[in-house]
Design brief:
With 375 residues, this protein is mainly alpha-helical. The chain is built from 14 helices and 2 strands. One of its GO terms (molecular function) is oxidoreductase activity, acting on paired donors, with oxidation of a pair of donors resulting in the reduction of molecular oxygen to two molecules of water. Pfam families: FA_desaturase.
Amino acid sequence: MSRTTPTLTPEQYEELGRDLDALRQRVLDDLGEADRKYIYDIVKVQRALEVAGRGLLFAGFFPPAWIAGVTALSLSKILDNMEIGHNVMHGQYDWMRDPAMNSKMFEWDNVAPAENWKHSHNYIHHTYTNIVGKDRDIGYGVLRMDEGQKWRPYYLGNPAYAFALMLFFEWGVMLHDMEVDRLMSGEKKWSETAGVRRRIWHKSVKQVIKDYVLFPALTGPQFVSTLVGNAAANLIRNVWAFNIIFCGHFPNGVETFTEEETKNETRGQWYYRQMLGSANISGSPLFHIMSGNLSHQIEHHLFPDIPARRYPEIAPEVRAICAKYGLPYNTGGLTKQLRSVAKKIFKLALPDNLRGKPAQPPAGTVGNGRALRAA
């Protein structure tokens, strides 16, 4: 359903910026032992699950043990990637001065090199959030996820590409910083990717050897069942991460922007873009932990360097600030958000004229029925 997003006056943008800056500073001033204990406890649980999972796979000849092992290993990988890796690499725990929790030194259980991911995600995505043509997370160079992306026959495969990306999500993340679409179009030279390729090679080879050679070999006669178990755990982690991330970025109501309208953006206007370009997923405390608190994507985009465990407690204040300025606060259950994302993937696979839409969005706007921001 189309809607009109309220625009703010320059004075309101400034006030919005002050409100959110004050909220951010209050949380930063309050960081301490509870936050430190939380992340250490999560790491302990993650490691215990990994040890339990790999231990149970030694008894892979007994189906219940294999299932329990895959379950434990899947949960371990989800925690490592979502609540630990993603958040630590955002610098959320740099204030602790613990090398193991430092964003510059952390490496996760994933084929994607941390350094490449921090460039494509921390810098590109979080700087240019939902700016079509700048934020490469809009479609990941593979999918059409916004009407501002010009339709091509290639996009008829949108649903198939999305399904493949979901199954092999860690590999998609690994290749993201390569910008393969730009290489194929000639916008980028192969020689420019030397550093990215080197890091991909070193990290992916180590990860493949660990999951599909070393640990299976350690289980001796259970080599094949352990290999399959590790592959299953990676698959479950990939599917979970894909769905959480897509539900936070692409459900109905999430807005996109043009480069022109974000030129010379103020702090308040940047906050405005983050609030409108994100969506939350409602759920239980355990659900939020397993999502890395990316179920609070609005709060994460506003404050990517604040420990994610704080997002649930500040969410009511962020929602109140949205209400103060007449801005939407996009949230819903996982099923609702997933259904919305799936609908968009299928809808945008079709040419615009078959959907009763103009070939391009109206000049100066992107998306469905969004009013321009005040200059």
